[in-house]
Amino acid sequence: MNQATNNERGVALLAAIVAIVLIGSLMTAAAASSILEFRMATNGRRMVQAFSTAEYGLIDVVTNWDQLTYNVLATYDSSYVTDTTPAGTGIYEGYVKRLSDEVFLVKVAGRDTYGGSVQQLGSLVRLTPININVSSALTTQGPTTIGGSATLSGNDAMPSGWSDCPPLETGMSGIATSDTSNLTLQGSCSDGSCIAGSPNINEDTTVADSTFFDYGDAMWDDLVKAANKILTPGTYTGVQPSYSGGNCNTSDPKNWGDPLDQTSNCAMYFPVIYVNGNLNVNGDYGQGFLLVDGDLSVQGGFEFFGIVIVKGAISTTGTGGHFNGSVMAANVNLDASKVLGNASVNFSSCSIDKAIKFAATATPLTSRNWFQVYF
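RE: above sequence
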């Protein structure tokens, strides 16, 4: 009897030990499984975070396309990009590389907050310039007066000091208007000798509101949305390039690029300038697109290279304004446009092309524009 009891006690002890071992193994396995799942979940979260950061980087670069940096890149040259997400959940870095005149590769690597996970994305984007059909140095559809010592020329001319222009184009008309009976020539221009072109005066009955506000694939509102320099109506004096730390200070409202010094850091800055109302400019110079949602008045020998589109009337007095490219005055209220003094409007295909080229923004290609990068 005692012997049997002793044997049963031994079995009970063995069973207890086995149970403890099994329970311990199960607990260890459960703990290991929990740790593994936690690590997998953490890694997964970090991968998603890194992917989202890379995706944000692509969108950020394309949406806030830096024309001054990217549009002037030579083919196969690249520009480094980096930033953090607004919530601080990740950091992205990469580059924008020009593949051809119009196509760019944007490659971005996104990292999670701890830098433990990296996801890379690439996107092909194409420049989308707004092409405006320019047919003359000055286009208008309302009453227009030309006098004083003003000159208009539709003969293509290369701006002084610009060496990277394409061949000159066939001459345009000096002025195109929907009705020549609205055109008044005064003083030394009474015989039309101040207007040059092929022809010098073109009565184009197709000139209408759509000429000034409909550009085929784009409209006036699209140009306004593309504006990167939005100014309040009023008088501006001393418009000229400015610099900060040696770089072109694009935040300066009076910095409209530098058409006169092709070696300056602002030479390639062709802003799209929009004024929601009347604009009066007195002196100095600029380049790009000038969009005036009202009347434009110019004095002090102000010079502009590019395209000027005015919803209302344009007037120049005294030393007037000197425009190189094309001026379009819609006269939507049929106010009289007056080109007087020693003002000049000269057709320049190079000024127009550069304004269009450097103002272009980027659009992802429509067919699978982004892809994941594994190298």
